[in-house]
Amino acid sequence: xxLLIGSRKGGVGKSSTAYNxxxxxxxxxxxxxxxxxxxxxxxLSEYQQAVEAGHELGFVVVDGLAKHRKLPAHDxxxxxxxxxxDPKDLRKAAQQADLLILPTGPGPKDLKxxxxxxxxxxxxxxxxxxxxxxxxxxxSQRGDRVLAFLAGAGIANxxxxxxxxxxxxxxxxxxxxxxxxxxxxxxxxLKITQQSPTKSWRYFSKWTLPHSxxxxxxxxxxxxxxxxxxxxxxxxxxxxSAASQPKRSKAL
Length: 252
Prior knowledge:
This protein is an alpha/beta fold. 34% of the residues lie in helices and 17% in strands. It has eight helices and nine strands. Strand 6, helix 4 and strand 7 form a beta-alpha-beta unit. The radius of gyration is 17 Å and the shape is globular.
């Protein structure tokens, strides 16, 4: 499975979504590779920081994608796209992925930018899912109102949203996924994506709309596939595996 995390607006948690999703899926037993194709190298730098500190994250981060190069063995490939990619490039990349996830904040400008991206990239409903991020915690009702707005506008969205929490900043300080941090907010956020393989497929499959009838296609993930060749999507940098992972230390 190939999951592309993309956005044409900065500050919506694109790289954070890719990094934490990789950790959550790895916890479920999947072989996960995260390809950092963002010029800021956010995912790769955090991964290297965590590895150098002695943490084992359970997934591998590589530097971009190169033509005709083999990735490490995996059953899920997550791609953190270029920052603010050209609509044509994003559309082409989405066509090669199983699903494009579009993180978006709850503000009017965020929603306007996401709507423009869907229109400019000519995305169909089975090509993408909008993930609402940085939502104010309860008792604020903004998250619920935005989700209702997205559904009413016919925009395909994931059923869960990501709240704005300090634990994200704490985790970023140490280069760790939020799920490795102590505290109830961190563990609650981890559970948002920590589902069984079948449920994960239901959340991320491009064949299922949030309010559609039950799946009529395959609902399980591929098992132990061989390494695959991936053509360049949003980056032409050479593929380089990150440092090997040391023994896992206790979470902070």
